[in-house]
Every structure is written in structure tokens, then in C-alpha cells.
Amino acid sequence: MNSIKPDIKEMAAIVNDEIAGSKNKAVFSVLIFTLLKTLLSVISVIPVMAAYITNSSNKLPVLIITFAVSFIVQTLLGVIQYGLTSIFDLLTKKEFVTLGFLFIGFKKDQKRVFITTILYNLFLIVLTVILVLAASSVFFSTPQGQNALIAYSQTKDFSALNTFIQSFSVVLIFVILLLVILLFPFVFRYLNLINDSNISSGKALFESYSFTMKHFFKYIGLLIYSTKIPLAVFVICNVVSYFIPERLSFLSSIISIVAFIAEINILVRVNFCNVIFYYSYKRPQAIFKNYEEENNDNDTKLLERSSETDGEMDSES
Asked: Based on the number of CB atoms within 10 Å of its own CB, is 112 exposed (0-12), middle (13-18) or buried (19 or more)?
């Protein structure tokens, strides 16, 4: 086995082995994180909903409060994400871990975790503003964008608003895709903090970026190879649900459940992939040695069982 340049199939095999050995804790950790993320995301839009219900005409305070709440929510989610990364890191190392480790970022190494999260969120905000402004200027310079804006500004009815939103959604989808691509290289920021107690927040972000870009295609290959089945199920379910008529709501609910299970499976695999990939390059001897020792132990146990069975058969005969 090549311990210097690990193969995608080798890493995927270790991911499968980790899932088989600690599936319950991994699944419940991701499930709780997903529920917390949904809950906090709902909280972040409460100011906008309150302004809409009360029909407030003063929009600026609403925008400021919404921005502040969203920033706090994203910071809290980042700290919890650090906890989730810690759980998968400890599961891979076969060390003691509980679901309570999701909140370890609030108790251990808080300063670096919070600074790293805040720096990442500030970069996200600046990048989002730049991309939205750039994409909007291009969109509103086109005839389609100008017509949609004029139609809404003149009538301000629901149909005009709906048309405007549908037209502008293309811009938002483009911005979201660019954000995912540009923020993707920072995926290892928390693993850098976990494995180097002396690294600064800025360096953790920078090293994550350089490490991901250096091994970009192999990392993408591992993610695709390891998640291909649940990813296919997730995509198929979402495509099928789009064509299901409203009268078949029960069938739609079943497909939604299957899609959710596939999504959790994807997230579990992605988190294990992150840890396995990180150690495969940072400390390859350790992770591949552990994997080989486990497999050798399993092979030894199988041989022992086989010998015992053969001995019993010989004594009976």
C-alpha cells in the first residue's frame, strides 16, 4: 500500500471501515447538527418575518437587525461545526467521544475557534456583497433585468414581484455556486486547529486553502467516489419529487424521507472523507498503519475461528 500518495480507493475503503465501526455516533452527530442548523436558520429570519407581519415601513433597522442576527447565528453554527469535526476526528482516532462534543468549541480553545469562525464569516460577507453587486449590475444591464425591475416598480403587485424574483433567482443561483467554489478550500480550517495547538486562526485558514488547492482533484475524486450511491439517490429523489402531482402527497412524503436519509448518509461520508483525506497527507503512516492493523486483526480472528471450526469437525469425525 502506498503510504506517501494514498489512492482514492484506499481512502474510500478506510471511510467505509470507519462508518461500519462507528455508524451510530456519526449519524446521530450529523442529525443533531442538521436539526440545530435548521433551528438557528429559522431564528435568523425572524426579524424579516416580524417586519412583514407588522407591515413596518422602516426597512433599515430591520436589515441591520437581520444582518446582526444572521452573523451571530453563522458564528454559533461555525463553533458547532468545529465540534462536529472534532467528533469525526476522535472517531477516526478510536478515542472516547460523546454527542456532547458537538459543543466542545464553546468550552475548549474558544478564542481560536471563535476568531477562525468570525474571520471566515467576514470573508463570506465581503465575498457575498461583491458577487451580488457584480452579478446584479450585469443582470440589470440586460433587457430582461430592466423589464423585470420596471414591471415591479410600476405595479408592485404579487405577480410582478413573482416575475422579478424568478428573473433574479438566476443571479442568486450563480452567486451561490461561486460562493461554494470559492469557500470550498477552507474546509480543513477546523482540522488544522484540532491538530496544531500553536497555529493561529489566519494560518489555519491559509493552510486549509493551500492544502485543498494542492490536492483539489484527488479530494473531489474521493468525495464523489465515497458518496456516489447516496448522492445518486438524493438527486433522483429530488428530480422525481418535482414531477409528482399534488394529489400524490403521500408518495411525495416517502420520497422526501428517503432523500433526507440519503442526505444524512452523504454528510456522514463527507465528514469522514475530510478527516481521512487530511491525515492521509498530513500523517499517512499513522492512519494507514491503524487501518492495516485492524484488518490484520480481523484476518487473524477469522483464521482462528476457521481453525477452531476445523478442529471441532476433526474431533467429531
From this structure: buried
